[in-house]
Design brief:
This protein is an alpha/beta fold. About 30% of the residues lie in helices and about 15% in strands. Strand 6, helix 12 and strand 7 form a beta-alpha-beta unit. It binds iron/sulfur cluster (SF4).
Length: about 375
């Protein structure tokens, strides 16, 4: 595929001030096939997908993210992540609505408490772009399912009443969909709880709406450190100067940045793609933290790769590039069992205290245990 993109030129009458305004980007999100057909050549399959699959899990694409699309190639990684296809209507018998059983471990609505010392707090169910591989599509994109204020207050009260919780993950949907004031108020509430040691924000805004990170917002958020921000880059086509600028603002303000990549068939199940992405992330001071095997959410079987692909990618990175660029490859177990790391096999033989290992280049070395 060529690196040709629609580019910002597809919006000739839009001023730079509008383009760089995150609220303009949110308001101008592309929601229909007709709107999208004005900037790219839609295939008949994409057209049908938007009508049929988009009726079940909506389409929304910021002009910024759409500007990264290839104008004619339906295999473009940006198009594949953002445009519904009819394949989403195929439900594999092994797929479930809530693959990580997040709803099962809810002591109060809108908060998952599965592990002893950390919780996952759901905020809005809105996102700038609805990723077609989303594992929370059961509720993301449905405005009816967003957390009302009273629910959020109850969830924060639960954290306050539970001293074992030292780590709060703020997720959604995308919490950065909130306007500055409600976002700062929510984190102020959480931060006022003495036993909460760290707060993590999970957001795809650096990828889909980097304009969201204004210097003013970043300045206001940095009072809440230690604040971690995990984002979700999946492909080098998302690595733009705008994204780099947002990440630079965050890193300069002391955020600890990490990336969660989801392994997606035909998009990033290629060692060179992952290496290029991870080396770019490191230059922006973002640690490639996880590669997730694609979950068993309904209607995303067409994105799922064999597990061996992920192991092969780790093997292709380990030793061949900086260890910092080698994330954990994990399967988040269907049913709520948690994350299981998968690594290539380096131990060849273990006899008594003698261990024979294979290194990254396939050479054998012996190590004697103490
Ligand atoms: S940003 Fe996250 S929550 Fe929102 S649609 Fe994408 S994967 Fe789902």
């Amino acid at each position: 595929m060529s690196s040709q993109t629609v580019s910002r030129n597809a919006w000739p009458h839009v001023t730079d001030a509008q383009w760089n305004d995150w609220q303009w980007q949110q308001q101008q999100r592309i929601r229909t096939a007709d709107q999208l057909a004005k900037i790219i050549t839609l295939t008949p399959e994409e057209h049908e997908g938007i009508t049929q699959a988009g009726a079940l899990f909506p389409m929304a694409i910021t002009p910024y993210y759409a500007s990264l699309m290839h104008p004619t190639d339906p295999n473009c990684p940006i198009r594949r992540q953002a445009i519904p296809t009819k394949e989403e209507l195929n439900i594999d018998p092994n797929e479930v609505e809530d693959p990580l059983a997040e709803e099962k471990y809810m002591p109060v609505p809108g908060l998952t408490h599965r592990y002893p010392d950390r919780v996952l707090l759901y905020t809005t169910h809105n996102c700038p772009v609805y990723c077609r591989h989303c594992n929370r599509k059961r509720k993301v994109g449905d405005p009816e399912s967003a957390a009302p204020r009273a629910q959020l207050a109850r969830a924060v009260q639960y954290i306050r009443d539970t001293p074992a919780i030292r780590d709060v993950l703020i997720s959604g949907g995308d919490p950065l969909t909130y306007a500055d004031n409600p976002l700062v108020e929510m984190i102020t509430d959480i931060r006022s709880i003495p036993h909460v040691e760290i707060v993590r924000i999970h957001t795809r805004n650096p990828v889909t709406l980097p304009q969201r990170f204004t210097p003013e917002l970043v300045e206001r958020l940095k009072q809440f450190h230690p604040l971690y921000l995990n984002t979700h880059f999946n492909h080098p086509a998302e690595c733009t100067p705008e994204a780099a600028h947002a990440l630079m603002l965050l890193a300069n303000a002391g955020f600890v940045l990490g990336n969660h990549m989801v392994l997606l068939k035909g998009i990033n199940d290629d060692p060179e793609v992952v290496k290029t992405l991870n080396l770019w992330l490191l230059k922006q001071r973002v640690r490639p933290y996880y590669i997730f095997q694609c979950d068993s959410a309904q209607g995303i079987a067409h994105f799922r790769t064999p597990v061996q692909s992920g192991i092969d990618i780790i093997q292709s990175l380990r030793g061949f590039t900086s260890g910092l660029a080698v994330p954990h490859y994990v399967v988040d177990l269907t049913g709520g069992g948690g994350k299981v790391p998968l690594v290539p096999e380096y131990l060849v033989e273990h006899e008594g205290k003698k261990m024979t290992f294979k290194n990254y280049a396939g050479e054998h070395y012996v190590y004697h245990e103490g």
